[in-house]
Amino acid sequence: MKSILAVALLSYKEGIRQKLLYSTVLFAILMCFGAVLVSGLFLRDISKIILDFCLTAVNIGGLLVPFFLAIHLLSRDIERKSIVTILAQPLARHSYIIGKFLGISYLTATVMAILTVTTFISVWMGIALYGEKFFTSFALLPVLSSILLSWLGILVLNAMVVLWCTVTTSSFLATLLTFFTYIIGHSIDDVVRFLSIENSKMIIALPVRKVIEFCQYIFPNLSAFDFKNQAAHGLSIPASEFLFVTVYAIAYICIILSLAILFFRKRDIA
Amino acid sequence: MKARLSVLIVILLSVLVIASTNKDIYDISNNNYQESLGNLGNIPSSMVQIASLEFKGVSADLLFLKTMAFIGLKIKENENLTSEQWHLVYDILQLITDLDTRFFDPYLFAQMMLPWQAGMVQEANSLLQKAANNRPNDFRPYYFLGFNAFYFEQNARKAALYFEKASVLPGAPFYFKGLAARFSVYDNNVSAGIAFLQKLLQQNSNNDRQVQQYLSTRLQALQAIQKLEKALADYTKSTGHPPKRIEDVIGYGDLEVMPEDPYGGKWIILDNGRVYTTSKLVSKKHKDSKQ
User: Fold this and answer.
1) CA dihedral in degrees (A44, A48, A49, A54; nearest 10)?
2) Is A169 touching B (CB cutoff 8 A)?
3) In this complex, is the C-beta atom of A202 within 8 Å of any C-beta atom belonging to chain B?
C-alpha cells in the first residue's frame, strides 16, 4: 500500500511540475469572465447559461489530464526506460499501475476542484451583475453531484489511458485510442437509442448493427456520467442514479486496471 | 537590430492589414451566415445529439445565440425574413430544444417571434407544448398557449383549459384562476368555470384570505349568470319569445329575486341571447384605480 501511495504521490508531483496548474488557473479566469459576459446575451436562463459554460469548462479541464498529461506521464516512463529504474526498487508491477492511476486521478481532482471554485465565483458574479431573480433555479447540491459524477467518468477514461499505455508502444497510439474511447463512450448511448427507433426509410447494414452492439458491451458508457444539464437547471440527481453510476464506474475501473496489470506483467520493458 | 526592425515592420503591416480587412471579413461571414444556419436546420436532430457528445447544453446555448444573431442581423438591416427563413428558424429552435429540452429561452423566443412576425401560431404552439411537457412545474408554457388560443385563434374554450392548467402550477399569479373562469364565460361554458372555481376553492382552503375572496367573488358572479341563464331559457320556453329586459325573467326557473353582481355591474342580455354584466367581471374599485 505504501509503495502504491509513493508512486501516486510521485506521479502527482510530476504532473504538477508540468505547469498544469498555471494553465488551469488561466483557463479558469477566462472561463469565469467569459461565461458571465456571454450569459448576458440571453433572455432569461442566465443561471443555466453560466452553469452550462462553467460545467463544460470543469469537464474540459478534467479531460486535459487523461488526454495530455496522463499519457505523457505514463508513456515517458516506458519510452525513456526510466521504468526499469523504478521497478528495480522493491515495487510490484501492479503497485506501479495502481499508483500511476491514483496519481493522475488526484491530478484530475485538483484541476476540477480549482475549476469548481471558479464556477461558484462565476455564479456569484452573475448574481451581482444580473440580480438574484435569474438564479432562482440555482442549486448547490446538483452542481456538486454533477461534477463528482463527471470526475468519476474521467476516472474511467484515466483507467483506459493506463490500459492503452500498457498495451501500446507509442504515446501517439495511446492518445489516439483514448480519443476513440472517449468518442465511442459518449456517442454509443445516442447511437443505440437512434438504432432502436425503427425507421422504415433508413436501413442499417447488419455488420454495422453488430459492431455497435459489440461496442455497447466493450466500451464504457461515458454519457451515463453526464448530469450537467440537470445541474444547470437546478434539478436534483436521484440518489439511486448517483449510486448506480458510482458502482458502474468502480466496477469498470476495476476491470480495466486488472487488464492493464495483466498486460503490464507480461510486457517486456527491458 | 536589423532583424528586430524587420519583425516590427512585419507586425505593423499585419496589424494594418487585419484592421483594414476586418469589416470585409465580417461581411463575408454575414453572407455565409444564413447558409450555415440552413445547413444546421437540415441535419437530423439525432445526428446533432450524437455529434455534441457530452456538451449538449452548451451546444444548445451556442446554437441559440447563432439563431438570435441571425434574426438580429435581419432586424438591423430592416430586412423581413421570408417564410422559408422563418421555417428554418423554427427547425433550428426544434433542434435546440431537442438538445436541451428544458432550455426556456428558445421557447420564449418562439413565442415572441413566430406568431407575431411570421403568423406561425401552430408552430409556436408546438414548441410551447414541448416546453409544457418538459417543464412540468412551469406555468409559463400553458400561459402562452392560453394567450395564443384566445388572441390568435379566438378560441376561448381552449384558452380557458390552458389557463386552468397554468393556474395550478407553482408561481402562477393568482388572477390566472379568475382568467380561466372568465374565458369559460366568453365561451358560454359557465358550468365549467363554476366547477373549476369550486375545485380551486376546495384545494386552496388554506390560502390567504385575499385570494379566497377573489375566487369566491368570481364564483358568485358565475353562479348568478348560470341562474339567470336558466331562468331566461325557462322564460323563452314558456312564452315562446325571448325576454326584452333581464328583469322579465324573475319568477322563472329558480329565480325569485334578481341576484346582485358582486362586481357592482348590471345584468344585461347580449345580442346572442346570453347573460352578461356591465362590470365585465372586473370590480368597480379595480376599474377606477386603472383609470
Assistant:
1) 160
2) no
3) no
In chain A, % helix, strand, coil (3-state, to 5) comes to 80, 0, 20
Amino acid at B256: E
| Residues 63-122, chain B, touching A (beta carbon < 8 A) | 64-65, 68, 100, 102-105, 108-109
One digit per residue, pLDDT tens: chain A, 270 residues? 788 888 889 888 888 887 777 787 788 778 878 899 999 888 788 999 999 999 999 999 899 889 888 888 887 777 777 777 777 777 788 899 999 999 999 999 999 999 999 999 999 999 999 999 899 989 999 999 999 999 999 999 999 999 998 888 788 888 899 999 999 999 888 888 777 765 656 677 778 888 888 888 888 999 999 999 999 999 999 999 999 999 999 999 999 999 999 998 888 766
b or e along A94-117 (b: 16 or more beta carbons within 10 Å of the residue's beta carbon)? bbbbbbbbbbbbbbbbbbbbbbbe
d(CA A237, CA A245): 11
Contact B58 A191 (CB under 8 A): no
Q: For residue A63, report the phi and psi dihedrals to the nearest 5 degrees.
A: -70, -25
Nearest to B58 among A45, A56, A197 (CB): A56
CA distance B105 to chain A (A): 6
Min Cα separation B126/chain A (Å): 20
Mutate to test the interface with B, among A43, A134, A187 (most CBs of B within 10 A): A43
ipTM over cut 0.90: no
